[in-house]
């Protein structure tokens, strides 16, 4: 779905749910690779997650704070913070470390569970039309997903870059 088709909260939910499926499809494939190919795939996954989570925090969780509950939104952000920590550990260890596969499988499981929580607890309760600001954030996130304008090599830096650029649209 292109950002030009984004009009309602449900359009955004569909877009993000499609991204959840992409993440579920792509993440496990990292473990099928070795060497530089594994590292490159891990970088693509980290970029995808960084931009996705920054977009969710600046749109969905913000909406969920008022439309669902502040506690639910806070719980989702807490899960994202835990994933950030896990990704940082993986980055420190390196994609070819002895512990990478087990830690990465745990991260994959946590990400899938997090996506399910969002879909069950937040997404279905979001209603109404999107603001022009939210539409602009989705358009920017699409560009950032391609790596255009995204700064940093670590997940933390990529997330901070995406989050700051999205915040500037407020």
Work out the helix count. Answer: 7
N-C termini distance:
23 Å
Note the run of SSEs as H and E.
HHHHHHH
Counting helices, strands and paired strands, the structural category is mainly alpha
Mean pLDDT: 91
> What integer value in Å does the Rg equal?
16 Å
Biggest sheet details: none
Give the number of DSSP strands: 0
What percent of residues adopt helix (DSSP H or I)? over 70%
Domain count: the total is 1
Query: Which segments are poorly predicted (pLDDT under 50) over 5 or more consecutive residues?
Result: none
Based on CA inertia axes, which overall geometry fits?
A: globular
Beta fraction: under 5%
Model description:
- It is a single chain.
- The chain has 7 helices and no strands.
- The chain has 170 residues and is mainly α.
- The protein has one domain (3-167).
- The chain is globular, with a radius of gyration of 16 Å.
- The mean pLDDT is 91.
- This is Hemerythrin domain-containing protein.
